[in-house]
Amino acid sequence: MGDDRLLAPGQTCWRIERADQFAYIIDGADYFRHVKAAMLRAHHRIILAGWDFDARTTFERGTKTLPGPNQLGAFLYWMLRKRPALETYVLKSNLRLLPAFDGIWFGVTPVALLNQISSKRMHLAIDGAHPIGAVHHQKIVVIDDAVAFCGGVDLTLDRWDTRAHRHDSRGRRTMGRRYGPRHEVAAAVDGAAARALGEQARARWLTATGQSLEPVDPKHVTWPRGLEPTLRNVDVGIARTLPELEDRREVREVEALNLAAIAAARDTIYLENQYLAARRLVDALAARLREADGPEIVIVIPRRGNNPLERGTMDSARHRLIQVLWAADEHQRLGVYWPVTDGGEPIYVHSKVLITDDRLLRIGSSNLNNRSLGFDSECDIAIEAQSNNPEHDAIRRQITSVRHELVSEHLGVSIGELEGAMVECGSFVKAIEALRGDGKTLRPVTEETVAGEASPLAENDLMDPDHVPRSLTRSVQRFIAGFRN
User: Fold this and answer.
1) 3-class SS of residue 366
2) 181: domain range?
3) 50-90 per-position pLDDT tens digit
4) Is the entire prediction scored with pTM above 0.85?
5) What is the CATH number for 182?
6) Count of structural domains, the chain
7) Which end of the chain has fewer CB within 10 Å, C or N?
8) Do residues 285 and 262 touch, judged by C-beta distance below 8 A?
9) CB contact at 8 A, 94 and 54
């Protein structure tokens, strides 16, 4: 790369752009509130590009603090009435075999019908511009090209939860139905970084609809009230995964950034992710574990998949690949955990975070599975503290702070307790082990945890390919062969 920077445009990221303000956001309750607060300041355009949307998504539970309707669909229409120059664009990945039957309002109303009966300034589209079997997994919100959110949270049902993840939370209910605790992470940026994410969202809209949107030149403040910036005047890297299409080569910036960060880590690699199924990334982690003086590695994942398909594919791949990590852990520097509530209920980890040392923080939509590296579309953002730049001391402190804030939340302890244990134990993994207790805590993934997860689905790439297959027939044959062997 010419120097020791991890973020290299054209290699490990698409662009590096300056954000006047950067903030990370932990868990859905804060994310939904801050997204609504930002949209309240929109004057020209709101773009929502995601894997899923539902008009019934509720921004706030309990006491309502923000003006306007509290559900996504009603709020967007209210904003159109309030702001005569505002236009909204909602772009959802097609999740059904026939896009014409995919919907946004209540998940079933076809978009073609909605566009006929909705305001002419409300634009809805299903994005089917991807290979067969792939999805658009990017989760981007852009307001007036001035503020943008990027992370792992969809504006849909069953995503809201507080950082306390209380076992008996009354807020985790959808239409009277209870859902389980959930952990999410996202980030907000403004300035040139937000404009770049706006460019990516507009490119998605063009590919999906054939309609070109001009950039917005905002003349007003859009940063959401109540969201305290974590950093100011910081460079932000944007890394993507884009699958190969007839008129586009594949983009594997996410994979390249992950591999570069893992290879460069000195002391600590911290990962939070929904899955642990990416072969190349696990091999890279295993190689670092075998080194006599390599980094400690801490991985936080869910106890199990969220549905039968996940349990049959991603959990079975995890079963196989975690054995690779355990076999490589010759120097006892690995900790793999799953979080629980104060009542012992597993917290579903949906965040996608990578933190290496005090050097790199990556937050986004990409999972630790193969399809996130070359088959689905993904978008991550990252900040880097350059090791040879003393002006980046504040960035280094903040990257460390994010890691400790996340881990202390999972353990149910204060940041001070975690940092004290790290000093006393001289080890990140040993500090976690010392602080694990009853109630809200991290529990280790063990042989017993993954027992029964093995499946033939883990031995083929039909459900989790890392690129667009040259022959779908060949992939199906490999899929069937997995059951015969």
Assistant:
1) coil
2) 19-234
3) 999 999 999 999 999 999 999 999 999 999 999 999 999 99
4) yes
5) 3.30.870.10
6) 2
7) C
8) yes
9) no
